[in-house]
Amino acid sequence: EIFHSALQFDISRLARGAPIRYAALILTGLEDERLDRSATGVWEARWLASGIDENWSRLNFQDIHNAPVVQSLLPPLGQANLGPLAVNVFEFSPDQLTLLQQAVVNEQTRLSLRLDGPQAGGDNLFTWDSGYGPATRGNAPALLIVAGPPPATPPPVPTLDFIVVTSTPTPENVLTAAAIVQTSTALATQVGT
Hints:
Elements: E1 4-10, E2 20-31, E3 43-48, H1 61-66, E4 69-77, E5 87-91, H2 94-105, E6 110-116, E7 127-128, E8 142-147, H3 174-190
Antiparallel strand pairs: 1-6, 2-5, 2-7, 2-8, 3-4, 3-6
């Protein structure tokens, strides 16, 4: 069986255009009773494409499993890195900081992440503290972002390309209508419809 953990953070309060100097995902271990200490599997944190953000609360396992991955955060963790109350820090690389800053400029308001455990071998399960439920020790996941001051002039809001379709005006007479039909026919023959 494959297990995933999914996390989503609100990044809407970050100022557009502000330089992001540091970012890290911080997780605290909760339970390792089913962790196979002799196995060699790894756990990885993956940054998911923003297309998954919209319907987050309605996603099922398959949606999370098949979500496109933008980047993997380092380092991958082995059994030696995991344990109850062990703090695991996944730091964003300089290139990932640039991508995060661009996501904010593009008005992305959420950052979605997935934790992937070993995908081969025997049963090997580890859990991090979610900050919720009766088993929690109150160590919710955290996304730490250190950003500089916003620029005096924020970058322009990204624009979408629009195609404006207008209707053909009603011809003034029959001769104009015939000319429009011939022109349209010739255009369709050369270019297609």
